[in-house]
Amino acid sequence: MSWRAARLVAHRTETPTARTLVLEVPGWPAHLPGQHVDIRLTAPDGYQAARSYSLAAPADGDRIEVSVQRVSDGEVSPFLVDAYREGDPVEVRGPIGGWFVWRPQQTEPVLLVAGGSGVVPLMAMIRGRRAAGSRAPFRLIYSVRTPEDAFYTDELRRRVRDDAGLDVAYVYTRQAPEGWRGEPHRLGLADVNTHGWPPELEPLVYVCGPTAFVETVSDLLVGLGHPARRVRTERFGPTG
Amino acid sequence: MGIVTPGFQGRPRAEAPDLPPGQYLTPDFPVLSAGPTPRVPRDQWEFVISSETGTEYRWSWDEMMALPQETPTVDIHCVTRWSKLGTTWRGVSLDTLLDGVDTAADYALAHSYGGYTTNLPLEDLRDGQAWLVHTYDGDDLPAEHGGPARLLVPHLYFWKSAKWVRGIHLTVEDTPGFWETAGYHDYGDPWREQRYQGD
């Protein structure tokens, strides 16, 4: 798998600490929602640093999207979020990963559970479902600290309105929006029970977020009777 | 040299330790796994080596703990690019477990509670290169890091060090495991940066 030259052609601010990069990668092969890419930066003296980022959108010709959360002591993410300019080059290789993926041929109900920036590969699945005209029932449970920390807020609101069979539920851990019913809390059994699918429907579950979040949620799911093999996880530690 | 990205400097070079290419140092211990963490009680745990002829060699937890124990201190390198230096473990050398196993196999397929698998050449499990470990940094190995016991094969990327390991099939043919089937490299040498198929 070789490195390809890529160029930043557009960007969108997602939160005060995260931004979506639209890269043009000539010759990019197709990819599946849930896959990731490696992005490599090279300094003038030849020093290189590479990190993995989940693709945020389904394949669209030579264009790919990643949404990058700034890690405060990181080496790569602060540059990509704050300093990387339109028109400038980076190198990309991928797509990578064949397990944490959703294929448009899948028809079973899907439960997506996101913690923080773990929503990125799950958003690729939601967008891929729409792009493929899939009618697989999708539910997203999205845990964020505050409303300002949520990615893709406007688009998710629009998709819930327009994409039949898609539901989105938020859990706020620090501060809920004004008028929200209920207190801020960590995602628990009641949330998964209320907003997920019962095991009898044999859903496929995708969980992505920080390690502690993924551990908690996947334990809850197994406790509720979901077979471990139906629960796919992607965890991220401190990757800067 | 790759294509220079204007404005990118990177970390100061002086503090860069001796790491495999493309790796960075972490003081934490991140977790990479594909599904929920299996919980295996020790009194139900067993470890089985099965040869290519079908002969099985079994150890209960107590039998494994009664074998000679070693305390390796090693560097570990995850394919997700973190490295951790000087980690200390305790467990049984694979040399000890393979001693007395009659085999002409060239390959090993480690398999785990929860269904995970990973493949290695058998020679990479011999000669003081691999352990079945139950203790990390002086404490019982936590379940999210592979407890009650995992493989430790530190000279390969860490996905080869199967968590929750239950046994090893010895085989004549190489059989790709879980990540190897999902696009990762068959061998996974961090010093040759063998991350993905074709590297």
Automatic annotation (TrEMBL), chain A:
Keywords assigned by UniProt, alphabetized: 2Fe-2S, Iron, Iron-sulfur, Metal-binding
Molecular-function GO term, any one: 2 iron, 2 sulfur cluster binding
UniProt cofactor(s): FAD
CDD domains to which the protein is assigned, alphabetical: FNR_iron_sulfur_binding_3 (cd06217)
Positions of the FAD-binding FR-type domain: 1-102
Keyword Iron-sulfur appears in the UniProt entry: yes
Family matches, as InterPro entries: Cbr1-like_FAD-bd_dom, FAD-bd_FR_type, Flavoprot_Pyr_Nucl_cyt_Rdtase, FNR_nucleotide-bd, MRET, OxRdtase_FAD/NAD-bd, Riboflavin_synthase-like_b-brl
Protein name: Oxidoreductase
Automatic annotation (TrEMBL), chain B:
A Pfam cross-reference name: Oxidored_molyb
Domain annotation Oxidoreductase molybdopterin-binding: ranges: 35-179
Region span, Disordered: 1-22
Domain of life: Bacteria
InterPro entries in UniProt: OxRdtase_Mopterin-bd_dom, OxRdtase_Mopterin-bd_sf
Protein's name in the database: Molybdopterin-binding protein
Organism: Micromonospora sediminimaris
Organism taxonomic ancestry: Bacteria, Bacillati, Actinomycetota, Actinomycetes, Micromonosporales
